[in-house]
Amino acid sequence: MTETDRLLPEVRDHLRSAHQLLINGEFGDARDGATFETTDPGNGRTLATVAEAGNEDINLAVYAARTALNGPWGRFAPAERERALLRLADLIEENAPLIAQLETLDNGKPLSASANADIPLTAGHFRYFAGWPSKIEGQAIPTGYPDMHVYTRSEPVGVVGAIIPWNFPLLMAAWKLAPALAAGCTVVLKPAEQTPLTALLLGRLALEAGFPPGVLNVCPGFGGRAGRALVAHPGVDKITFTGSAAVGREIGATAGGELKHVSLELGGKSPNIILADADIETAATAAATAIFFLSGQTCSAGSRLMVQREIYDDVVAAVAEKARELQLGHGLDPRTTLGPLVSGKQLERVTGYLASAERDGAKVVTGGRRAGDALAGGYFVEPTVLADVPDHLTVCRDEIFGPVLVTQAFDTVDELATRANANQYGLAAGVWTNDVRKAHDLARRLQAGTVWINCYNYFDGAVPFGGYKNSGHGRDGGRAALEKFLQTKSVWTNLA
Hints:
This protein is of the alpha/beta class. The chain has 16 helices and 21 strands.
């Protein structure tokens, strides 16, 4: 059975329909008529032609967002915002089969991941933040003036420009949209050019859920054009971005010059640490999942496996065996456990790092090549395990964003903590041990925004997620995410 044979009728119909910009509640072509193609990374074939936003489209979207903020959306009561967010979560679940196949076609991830992880987490995120609108409060503040009444108001920061990556297109949209909408902001969303389809569908569902026109505008396009226009637009009050550190620096510089609010969730080279007292089979299985899930294309991937020396060989052998058991294939094939990389550009990046590792003398335990034969038309790389990799090698320092695991031995916990922190990133870390004191001591010492102990890559809408150092600043998830879309106003009233 081919990928085409596995498509649901509603998916076929959706792919044949127009994929236009959503601005002010209406779908339409770009003002200059520009379009681009989105590709199935499992076979390299074109999925759909999508309208490409330019400067004029961004102008119109920002104006629509400002109009909605000052108009109908600004008059929504907290309970109305709550109902709209809950209805959107319901619609995501009601349309789950359509959304899951679109996400897999556009991104390449196995359908099981789209259906069983991305969609439930997305709906859960909207439901979590639906509980916040009625709990956004100010406070009365006593002062040194006896006849003065002083209170604060928590108000929406305004129009938000949200720029999201291609690895979790639907879920990353939810991470930005749910807290922004709960806070009362309006949004112009620019999805990654590689994966625009589910963002556009999400915009349609938002209208169906009762969000007024202009509250959510969806403008697919390229970073150098639509993204830059959105970041620099004087009508945008805040930028929230998830992506690479290089682009994050550029956005931060531009937004800082305009004195915009900005939050950045950037890359990672996350150490996954296994101490000698850990259960080897459990830790090795989790370590393989931590790097090979979504073909390593996650910012929190456990891409640097650090193992205490006395169990190092056993752990590396076990992880390599798990890698060999993975089944590469198209995301719609139910046998697939490892999908393709998202694009030809990403394929070149990852294979370039593999060539670098080979030149630098890294030991390849398994994998190390682009997958060929029946998979040659797609962007597939074999799951790769590299052993005994020195700290100074490029593959040990850089975020590869592919199914490439660097493994290293360490002797003492003190040595480990120093080496694990000697990196530009600080997004996440994992610790595997049966000693609770060691676990929490390492959690304190590791410079990372998230530390998972005896687990890895768990997420919940209630829990903040973000990084230290070059992994960015600001948090997605939890109250911390909501607060970045709010600003405080102080009101003084003379009662004398």
